[in-house]
Structure formats: structure tokens, C-alpha cells
Design brief:
The structure is a single chain. With about 425 residues, this protein is an alpha/beta fold. It has one domain (about 10-380). The protein contains ten helices and 21 strands. The radius of gyration is 21 Å and the shape is globular. The mean pLDDT is about 95.
Length: about 425
């Protein structure tokens, strides 16, 4: 059993010393801790966080680096599948333990763990790591991630380069009662293209553990970035992650969020469309069962002209699950000729399940191309169930078919086939339990 140790400034300083970090990173880490201490608890609608959900953990011991895929835990390898031909960075209990790149990977592209990037590429990391204090709610999640992180991902794509395979970031937990912090930093120069897929898993039986994550994306002009995540922690884990992007001119970013696991999971995605002509699209799916509580927060702030955002989310709740869908779009004054749309639908399968939809749309500019929002929460149509059962399906089979069809408008738009298949596999797994 892990003894709980209160997180404090001494521990944060010790993490920096143990990693041999440069002075600039040590200062930023301690500043993040101070910000964490000062900030109030995040005030999400319908999601109540407690101080104990940030502090009643011990620091993770971390994993041990391995030289081959076969040396990783069997349960991790089973979750990830065949690694052949894939670009992988594996983080185990907050520590980078494995990396592989396929043959023929483009020259100049950097895919490594964050600690290695700090040592070997400080000119690329220092201007971007922990410099976005004001973006988003600047809440305890982002601050604690910055202070506590012991590992993470760094991706850099030079000008005009297209990375042919997705970069996969695996976050793995098999230590009970611990808190892990990690940061993913994704940088693309002008006209570059990359897809980064994050998968978060935990070993069976892991309880009272937490992941505090931070993802910062820096897309250059005319670049295209896809950032997808599949969160499939066990129900004894909480997952609090902040994802932020500030796209350059005419950059295109796709967020794809798939939230299936965790006892408590909050995925906050903050997009600031400052670059003229930039576009951000957010696709989301969630499935809360048992006594899970899942909160998907999507924020689109338009400050640049001719910018466009689109949010499309579908979710399912069953058993005693709780789900919150909180989209927020703001088109500021002078963001002329911009568009911002939201669509969200939630399907409630059981009487004790609860779903909350809290859309917000604010337009401060008169000259916009279009803006709108729509949100629904509803139960399964009994006539559909009756029809399917009359054709020989069991009640469970009929519900599964309806759920698959319900998710289709979102999953059909997922731009990466591997991510689409992973999401649908998780839907099937949730329906089978």
C-alpha cells in the first residue's frame, strides 16, 4: 500500500533537482506550483471538484526505461496492440520508458520524451514550455501539471514536412494511490502536417490514482494538426487534462476527444483562434456508465478575422453515470467574417443516469458569416427498440445497434482511421459490460 504524501513546494523542487533540469525550467516549475496554491478550485457547471482531488496522493515512483517492446508490462502491450510500423512514446507512471520510430521517418522531425527534448533541443522547448499562463481558465489542473510533471511528449515538425504515420503517445498507470503529471508539447512550422494520438490506460485494479495532464499545441501558418485522445482508465482513476491551441494564420486543427474511462474525468479543450483564417474543429464522444462522471469542456475563442470553429459531440450515459457537455463559443469584436457552430446530443439509456448540456454562444461582432448552437438530451425511442426486437434482436443487441448508429455522425468524421476504429472498439466494450 502506498503511503500518502502531501504534495508541497519541497517535493516540486526535488523533482526538478532529480531530473537535473536547467534553471529556467526549475523557475517555471516552481512558479506553476505557486500558481496552483493561489488558484481556487475550478468552477465547472455540474462538476464539483474538491481539494482532496488535487492533494491526497503520493508522487508516483515512475517506470523503468526498457530497450524493447517485449519488456513492457503484458497488460499495456495488450491494450496498445501490435507495435509494428508505429511511432510510439510510452509514459509509465509519469516516466518515459520506451520510444520507437518506424523506418523511413522524415528527416528533421523530432519525436521524443519531454525530458530528452529539454536537454537536446532547448532552443525549441524553452520559448514554448509553460508560457501560456493566461490561456483557458488558468486553473489548478494546468498549474499542477506544470509543477508536477515528470515526463511527457515533444513533437516538432519542420517547415513543409508531412509526417506519414500518426505519432502515438501512450499514458499508462499501474501504481495505486499516486498522482502523475505530464506535458505534451506539439510544434509545427509553416505548411507542416502531423497527427498525434494519445491513449490513456491503467492496469486492472488500480485505485485512488490521478493523472494531471497538459497538452500545448503550436501550429504554424498553413499547417494541419490532428490531436486525438482516447481516455480508457479504469474506474479507480481520475483524469484531469487541459488541452490548448493557438493556431497560426490559415492553420487547421482537429481535436478528437473520446472519453470512456475514469471515476472522474474532465477534458478541457481551449482553442484561441487568433491567426487570420485559422480553423479549429472539435469532435467528441463520451460514454459514462457505472458511477462514472465525465465532463467534456470545449472552448472556442475567436479573436482573428475569417476564423472558423465547429463543435460536434455525441455521448451516452447508462447505469448511474453522469456526463456534462459544456461547449463555449465567443466571437469577439473585430473577429469579422468568422463562423462558430455547436452541436451536441446525449442519449440516456437508464432511468438513474444523468446528462447535462450547457451550451454557450456569445457574438460580440456584427459582421459574422454564421453562428449557432443546438443541443439535445433524450432517451432511446421505445418504438425503435420494439421494431428491432420484432426482427429477432435481443434487447441488448437492439440497444447496441441504436448506440452505434447514434455515434456514427461523429465517428464518420474522425479523420484518422486508426482512431476511428479505436473509438468504436471502446463503444463496443462499454456496451458489452
Amino acid at each position: 500500500m502506498t503511503t500518502q504524501t502531501k504534495l508541497d513546494q519541497g517535493l516540486i523542487a526535488a523533482l526538478s533537482d532529480r531530473a537535473g533540469e536547467p534553471a529556467w525550467l526549475r523557475e517555471r516549475r516552481l512558479a506553476a506550483w505557486q500558481r496552483f496554491v493561489e488558484l481556487p478550485l475550478p468552477a465547472y457547471e455540474r462538476t464539483r471538484l474538491k481539494q482532496s482531488q488535487f492533494e491526497d496522493f503520493a508522487p508516483a515512483k515512475g517506470g523503468t526505461a526498457v530497450n524493447s517492446w517485449s519488456e513492457l508490462p503484458a497488460s499495456l502491450r495488450e491494450q496498445v496492440g501490435d507495435p509494428a510500423g508505429r511511432a510510439l512514446v510510452v509514459l509509465a507512471n509519469g516516466t518515459a520508458v520506451y520510444r520507437q520510430l518506424p523506418e523511413g521517418f522524415p528527416a528533421g522531425v523530432i519525436v521524443t520524451d519531454l525530458a530528452t527534448a529539454v536537454r537536446e533541443h532547448p532552443e525549441l522547448v524553452e520559448p514554448r514550455l509553460l508560457v501560456r499562463g493566461g490561456q483557458g481558465l488558468d486553473n489548478k489542473v494546468a498549474a499542477l501539471s506544470g509543477a508536477l510533471h515528470t515526463g511527457g511528449l515533444f513533437v516538432y515538425v519542420p517547415k513543409g514536412v508531412k509526417v506519414p504515420v500518426p505519432v502515438e503517445y501512450i499514458v499508462w498507470l499501474d501504481e495505486p494511490g499516486v498522482a502523475v503529471g505530464d506535458i505534451a508539447l506539439i510544434v509545427t512550422e509553416d505548411r507542416a502536417e502531423v497527427t498525434v494520438l494519445e491513449s490513456a490506460f491503467s492496469a486492472p485494479g488500480v485505485e485512488r490514482s490521478a493523472r494531471f495532464g497538459l497538452v500545448d499545441v503550436f501550429p504554424g501558418e498553413d499547417s494541419r494538426v490532428v490531436c486525438g485522445n482516447v481516455q480508457a482508465f479504469g474506474e479507480g482513476v481520475q483524469s484531469l487534462v487541459v488541452r490548448r491551441v493557438l493556431p497560426g494564420q490559415r492553420a487547421h486543427v482537429d481535436w478528437v476527444a473520446a472519453e470512456f474511462g475514469g471515476q472522474l474525468a474532465v477534458n478541457e479543450m481551449d482553442s484561441r483562434l487568433d491567426g487570420r483564417g485559422s480553423e479549429v474543429r472539435a469532435l467528441g464522444v463520451f460514454f459514462a456508465g457505472g458511477q462514472q462522471h465525465i465532463d467534456l469542456e470545449l472552448r472556442m475563442i475567436h479573436t482573428g478575422r475569417e476564423t472558423a470553429s465547429d463543435i460536434l459531440v455525441r455521448g451516452v450515459v447508462r447505469d448511474q453515470g453522469r456526463a456534462v457537455y459544456g461547449p463555449y463559443t465567443l466571437i469577439k469584436h473585430d473577429a469579422k467574417d468568422s463562423t462558430g457552430f455547436q452541436r451536441g446530443n446525449t442519449l440516456v439509456l437508464d432511468p438513474q443516469a444523468r446528462a447535462y448540456s450547457i451550451p454557450q454562444l456569445h457574438v460580440q461582432e456584427d459582421e459574422v458569416q454564421g453562428a449557432g448552437h443546438a443541443a439535445t438530451i433524450g432517451k432511446v425511442d421505445p418504438e425503435q427498440l420494439f421494431y428491432l426486437q420484432s426482427r429477432g434482436l435481443t434487447l441488448q443487441q437492439a440497444k447496441r445497434l441504436i448506440v452505434d448508429g447514434f455515434f456514427y455522425p461523429v465517428t464518420d468524421h474522425i479523420p484518422v482511421q486508426a482512431l476511428k476504429e479505436r473509438v468504436m472498439a471502446m463503444v463496443e466494450r462499454k456496451m458489452a459490460t
